[in-house]
Amino acid sequence: MSPLILKLILHSTWQTLEMVVASTALSVILGLPLALFMIATGPQGLYRLPFAARLMGMVVDAVRAVPFIILLVLLIPVTRFIAGTSLGTEAAIVPLSIAGIPYFARIAEMALREVDSGLVDAVRAMGGTRMTIIRSVLIAEALPGLVTGVTVTLITMVGASAMAGVIGAGGLGDLAIRYGYQRFNTTVMFGVVVVLIIMVSLMQVIGNSLARWLKH
Amino acid sequence: MNPILDIQHVTHTFGQHTALQDISFSVQQGEVVGLIGRSGAGKSTLLRCLCALERPQQGHILLDGVDLTTQPERQLVRIRRKIGLVFQHFNLLTSRTVAGNIALPLQIAGCPRKEQADRIAELLELVGLKGFEKKYPSQLSGGQKQRVGIARALAANPTLLLCDEATSALDPESTSSILNLLADINKKLGLTIVLITHEMDVVRRFAQRILVLDHGRLVEDGTLLDFLRDGQNNRTLQTLLADIRPSLPAFLTETLASAPQQGHNKAIIRLVLSGDNASEPLFSALHEQFNVRTALLQGGVTTVGEHLSGDMILSLEGEKTEQALSHLKTAAQNMEVLGYVPSHS
User: What's the per-residue H, E or C state across chain A?
Assistant: First the structure.
């Protein structure tokens, strides 16, 4: 493998990591409150608002229904508004996050729903405020599940970021298409696949052990 | 003295279904009350009303003079801190250690961190789990989890301890130790305890006073002794008491006749004794006074609260059996002739 190819792969790996980590971070920061909102306003929630819960659920499903490659193009004006440009690695973080937020929100919602309602009752009966219940019961008890959700989201973002080449974001996927596919460079293709496998495996292993450590 | 808990005409319905109907009773400071009923009798609803998680549609619940049914939610959050709740399935946070779980009500009450540690150590000592601070609930047995549950319920110095089927998920040994612990807490702290259960055996061993709930109504309010005395005429009580009362073995039921006949004159009786009566030398007294041979077939003497209480089935045989029976009728708390069997059996 020539030093040039190595440099290309290294550079693309860095771009992919940048997109994946940034968009997952945004997905968690904005997706978790969304999940809490859906749980809290839901039928057995702390702030029963069935209409709001249903509306939010519909918005989440609508975004998730659009394939990412289409979302990427569809969101170009939004990307330009937020990032100032619709091209490049930083710009790709916008559509990746917009796809990631409802994705993580649904996973987090499932993890939060798994929390025993008896625990919520117990802390309510103790005189805990709703904020205490959200912090000390819902989030604390669902933490292992939420960590698993972050792992799944990270890996999904690795896959989605491969398509971000369409808007000139670079990254491993883009490299594989341009060099491996369009220029018949099998070495680059294999190199990219190996890096992706290692990246995803590492994420899974770290995520699993963190979740296990949190699960007492 | 004003009661610590005063329930006045509480009625609560879910749609068409009436869960509670015109429930009234009061509990004095330091009392241990068992609330018993079969599943669906309205126990859980009543409990949720008592700990202010549910607002009854009619009636009033006064805790220490404050009416829970008229308080706004903001005030109820404060009032709930004065009620300790012990759950059937413990409901401990798995993400927190034993100390963390006990600390939660203290954190909610805004207790300073330094005082929390002292209070936790004190509570763990009380429930017999010294040195368990750093363990997680998943590392504990059922009985130990419930001890943590009790410590947590006591943490914020509640005025009332409500136990919801607190022993129903435990094995017999743990059940005994938890009941002993609760009795101990009642004695040491003078804490009022309401124990909700479907098991007569639990209230029998523990409660000074028993309330019976059936189909959303409060049908009985009394001591176990009252129940044993009046049990024959009350269907609800009979079914509840059947669990804990001695019953005649099948081989005797087969030959039982309602009146004595030739060669069929061994009397079978059910005898209820309480207080001093229960420790009297009954068998020798019957022998000396009436020359009657007495045998114990079922049951015996147990402690109910602090008193001895006897509930037993005896056979009496001899010339003066009838005199012995009329003597027992006046001397015992309750005596019921079940029938007569052949003298050789």
Answer: CCHHHHHHHHHHHHHHHHHHHHHHHHHHHHHHHHHHHHHHHCCCCCCCCHHHHHHHHHHHHHHHHCCHHHHHHHCHHHHHHHHCCCCCHHHHHHHHHHHHHHHHHHHHHHHHHCCCHHHHHHHHHCCCCHHHHHHHHHHHHHHHHHHHHHHHHHHHHHHHHHHHHHHCCCCHHHHHHHHHHCCCCHHHHHHHHHHHHHHHHHHHHHHHHHHHHHCC
Partner-chain residue, chosen from A126, A214, A215, that has the shortest CB–CB distance to B104 = A126
Which residues contact residue A152 at a Cβ distance below 8 angstroms, ignoring those fewer than 6 apart? Answer: A107
- What is the topology classification, in CATH, of domain B250-341? Alpha-Beta Plaits (3.30.70)
Q: Would you call B91 and A132 a contact, using CB atoms and an 8 Å cutoff?
A: no
Say if B77 is an interface residue toward chain A (CB within 8 Å): yes
In tens, the pLDDT along A44-75 reads: 888 889 899 999 999 999 999 999 999 999 99
What is this model's ipTM?
0.82
Of A119, A128, A129, the CB nearest to B91: A119
Show me where the domains of chain B are located.
Answer: 5-242, 250-341
Q: What are phi and psi of B170, to 5 degrees?
A: -110, 155
Give me the CATH code for the B5-242 domain, please: 3.40.50.300
Instruction: Give pLDDT tens digits for B286-319.
Output: 889 889 989 898 888 877 666 777 888 999 988 8
Task: Say if residues B317 and B266 touch (Cβ distance below 8 Å).
Answer: yes
Shortest distance between the Cα of B88 and any Cα of chain A, in A, equals 10
The answer to whether the Cα torsion of B324, B327, B332, B334 is positive or negative is positive
User: CATH for A3-214?
Assistant: 1.10.3720.10
From the CA of B116, how many Å to the nearest CA of chain A? 16
In this prediction, residue A110 carries a pLDDT of 95
Q: Give B-chain residues touching A127 at CB under 8 angstroms.
A: 77-81, 105, 108-109, 156
Looking at CA atoms only, how far is residue A112 from chain B in angstroms?
A: 14
The tokens for B182 are 């609760």
The arithmetic mean of pLDDT across residues A152-159, rounded, is: 96
A1 pLDDT above the threshold of 80: no
**C-alpha dihedral (A83, A86, A88, A92), degrees to nearest 10:** 70
Write the pLDDT tens digit of every residue in A87-143. 999 999 999 999 999 999 999 999 999 999 889 989 988 888 889 999 999 999 999
Substitution target from A126, A130, A133, A214 for chain B, most B beta carbons within 10 A: A126
Residue-wise pLDDT for A123-139, tens only, equals 988 888 889 999 999 99
| Domain boundaries of chain A, sorted by first residue | 3-214
